[in-house]
Every structure is written in structure tokens, then in C-alpha cells.
Amino acid sequence: MNVKDLVTRAGAGIVYILIILLGVLGGRFSFLAVFAAILGTGLFEFYRMVEKDTSHAISKIFNIILGELIFISVFLYLENITAYALPVMILVYLLILIASAVFIRRHDILHGIIYSVFGQMYITMPLSLLMLLSNFYQNSLAGEGYDWVPILALFVFIWVNDTAAYFIGSLTGKHKLIEHISPKKSVEGFIAGIFFTLLASLVFAALYPEFSRSLWIGFAAVVSLFGTLGDLFESLIKRTCAVKDAGNLIPGHGGILDRIDSLLVAVPAVYLYLIVFFSF
Questions:
Q1: Left (φ > 0), alpha (ψ -120 to 50) or beta: where does 242 sit?
Q2: What is the pTM of this model?
Q3: How do the domains of the chain map onto residue ranges?
Q4: Which pLDDT does position 264 carry in this prediction?
Q5: Which residues are CB-neighbours of 210 under 8 A, at least 6 positions away?
Q6: Which DSSP string corresponds to 131-193?
């Protein structure tokens, strides 16, 4: 990578980080706006990838709109505005898919339904859980309502893990992690990512001692392990669809989906981890 490409990649990365920080630190409405935009873009990139070689019977625009409505419904539930919107949106979505299977006479209609539902499970569900995670600590760190601390920790741990894995892997990586999926990932980079993410957890343990060091260390370990899994899974999707990047929105980085791939698997894992941790 030449100097110009490196500068472009670094600059685009900084802009991306600033946008994420705006969404996380700006409050619940800022979170809704930024991550609704990320959701819509991610869904568009995903459905465009899987439609690359064929036109599916179910429109990607329909899937994007319903994904956004489901995401907003979660926000309305957390704001105590209505508890009906979320189940209604899910039911409407499923009924439309079932009606499509009945009335659209195409041999590949089932494939269209499968890819539609998988996109929502892969992108909409984790980002909706991310919103729920912003209310997980509400009685412990920031009072009632939106709390950015766990969201910030999640992103910081992902960034530390990815950065350490990239640089250490590039410098010292000799043993491939899973070569047939992601040839550039190495065992050395994977170990370095875990190590530096655990170090970052100690910083959060010092800044937010309301919770134990063991919670933060476990939090970081879960993010590192499942974030790497998410990265590998998106690489598998891209390899299956025969594309280099999910998009080209972020110069030097690819698309939004290429930036949030680790997040999409890490969020459900972290949410489950916190539930289990606080159960004992």
C-alpha cells in the first residue's frame, strides 16, 4: 500500500470513527439517526451482493424499508411510546413474505424469502440488540435511559482488536488462521488482537470501576473472539458472492458492511454474556 492510499485509508477511517462517536455519545436520538443510516446502507450492500448474478422476486427496497421500520419499532419500545409496533412490524413482514410465496409464480421465490429473512437476521437483529444494549446498564452507570458506556466499550474493543490483528499480523504473521476464507488473517494477528483488547479492558475497568475487572475482561474477550468470527463470516459471504468488498462508500475500507462485520456477531454474544454474568 503506497503512502497516498495509506493516507486516504487513515482519513476515511477517522471520519468513520467520528461518525460512530457522534452516534454513540450524542444521545439516543443521535444513536437512532446514525445507526438507522448504517442499517439502511448495510442492508442495501448485503442485498446488492446476493443479487449480483440474479434478480430476486422480493425487492431489496422492500427489505430495507421493513428493516428500518423494525429498528425504529425497537426505539419506540425503549422510549415507552408503544409496545405494539415491534410485533406488528415483524408480523407484517412475515405475512408479506408468505403472501409472496403464495401469489408470485417463480421457481426461485423460496430463495428470495430465505435471502430476505437472512438479511434481517444478519444485520437488523444485531443492530436492534445494540440499541437494547444501550439500555442494559441504565440503572448502574448513567441513571435511567440511554447509556453510551457499553456501546463505546464495544466499539473500542472491536477497533483495538482489528487494528492490533492487522498490524501485528502484517509484520509477524506466518501461520494462516483460516486461509480458505480469509488468506490475510494469521494466528499471530488473532492472538495479538485478543491480547491488546484485554489490555484495553483494563483501561475501562479503571475508568468505570462500578463493575468488576472480571466483567470488563470477559466483555473484551467475547468481543475479540466473536468479532473475529463476524469478520470471517462476512469474508465468506463476499467470497461466495465473488466480490472484493461489500461496497465502496468508505475509501480504502470498502462498504459499511465491511466496517460493521465484527459488530454484527459480537453484539448478540456480548448481550448474552452480560445476561449470564449478571445472573450469578
A1: left
A2: 0.91
A3: 3-277
A4: 97
A5: 140, 141
A6: HHHTTTTTTTTS-SS---HHHHHHHHHHHHHHHHHHHHHHHH--SBSSTTT-TT-BHHHHHHH
